[in-house]
Request: fold
Amino acid sequence: MSLALRVAHAAMVCVLSFATLAHAAEPVPPIVADVRARMASEPVLRGDFEQRKTLKGFKNPVVSRGDFLVARERGVIWRTREPFASTLTVTRDRLLVRGADGGVTSRITARDEPGMQMVNETLFALMSADLQALAQRFRIEGELQGKDAWHLTLVPRDAALAQAITRIELEGDRNLRSVRLVEAQGDFSLIRFTQQTASPALTPDEAQRFE
Reply:
């Protein structure tokens, strides 16, 4: 399972457990503004990723590679090329997984799950490094490093989410460069982003992929 899908699952656990509770807006720590000032804000970001999933009790990590597309007004497309091809598409109202043949293997919509919008917002916030949104669901600590770099540690505010995720560590400069997700049972994933390019708009082909 990809890191993005694991985060979505954990967020769903949190949402369904606390669906009847109203959460007050949490104060945003100063480090969030400091990091946001260092980051680029282009509407569209593309790049490659490599994910290393380390399972408790296993010596060698499971490695997967692929590419991603983040469109701040549309959503996230996370395409794994190896070892098995699959595509995860996240928009404001649905989460869609396609297999190597392009067929849909999993679909969750806001109509099916009332909490889906919050799940997708959390996942989208993580992938696009929307720190303002993440600060409402995680306690954030961190530091600036040198002229451009930064490091943040996110700890879940909700007990249900903490049962799945212990913490998330983010590193970057103008863009998010790595995510380290530590799961409660001892497994962890490290994902690195490379070859990142930004632009003001999606291409027609990219826009169609969100349909």
About this structure: Residues 3-17 form the longest helix (15 residues). The chain has one domain: 3-209. Helices lie at 3-17, 30-38, 116-127, 131-134, 159-162, 204-209. The mean pLDDT is 81.
